Amino acid sequence: MKRRPARNTLRIATGLMTVVAVLLLTGCKDAGGLKPKSGGQPYDVVVTGGDSGAVATVGDMLRSVTVAGLPQKERAFRVKAAESEPEGAMKYARCIVWTVDDGDGNGTTRVRFERDVYAKPQIIIYVCGPSAALKSKNARRTGRTVSAMINRFERDAAIAELRRRYNAKAAQTADSLFGHTICVAPEMTGMKTGQDFIWVSDQSATAMGNVCVYSYRGDSLDATRAVAVRDSVMRANIPGETPQMFMVTAATPQPAATVRDFGGKKVMVMRGLWEMEGGAMGGPFVSHSVADTARGRIITAEAFVFAPGKKKGNIIRQLEAALYTLK
Predict the structure, then answer these.
(1) Strand ranges (E), 85-171
(2) How many H helices and E strands in the chain?
(3) For 30-82, what is each residue's pLDDT tens digit?
(4) CA end-to-end span of the chain, whole Å?
(5) Cα distance between residue 215 and residue 184, in whole Å
(6) Nearest alpha-carbon partner for 214 in 164, 178, 267
(7) Phi first, then psi: what are they for 194, rounded to 5°?
């Protein structure tokens, strides 16, 4: 890969001044009074280091990552590049990827991270190797590792914030319906309940975020059945403006489902698109389903977004954090 020229100094300075401004606005102390609050928004990334080629390579690598399950491609991270070691306001950025030329000649690039070093929440990811050329050679593997670290950090940070601050009424309602609670943002004040069903929404007129929880009989996680149940539940509980309008799961592309292990329990994660039959509405959704074997049922928590003409990646990822709080 060709070595990139140094970034424009004015562009770097502008980016760093933005970070400083955010810090001035959000520079309160954490609960323990030990570290300031980090600057920036979720999925903001500062790539830094003394080697301009390595910074450019890692920055381009992260810019190529997209958010899964959206109707249009969206970059997963907002990346700023700075060709220096973290200092001053930069040290308090939320997510720092620091390229380090450590002179190691064994032909490998190593990645490690630290959390909450200068601020909270914060992750500093070190990409260590002998040269910019080596970092370029291992860019694809390194990119997967770094992006996974950032996604996990942001997920954990969002979950921690929801557990600290959530809509208590929605949690209590879910508990009364299912014997399970869920933490949704306190701004999600709109709520509707039905038969084994709850829907909460922030009711935004421009970028509406929604979380549903519902249950159905069963003891195994099956993607085909899950889609059929989803369509039935949403048709009954989320109607359109007329009886002929109702939410359905989009057939193309087909929803993608995987079963993963989270905290010792099997969770079926499904991502896909929804649309309004007979209408022009639609957007992405993600659901987490778990088998409640003691009661012979499946519990599904789902997030979906309606944000026409707007980016949806950060919205759906922040909403998905609530699904991890189901317990």
Answers:
(1) 95-101, 110-115, 123-129
(2) 7, 13
(3) 444 588 999 999 999 999 987 788 888 889 989 999 999 999 999 999 999 88
(4) 48
(5) 18
(6) 178
(7) -145, -160
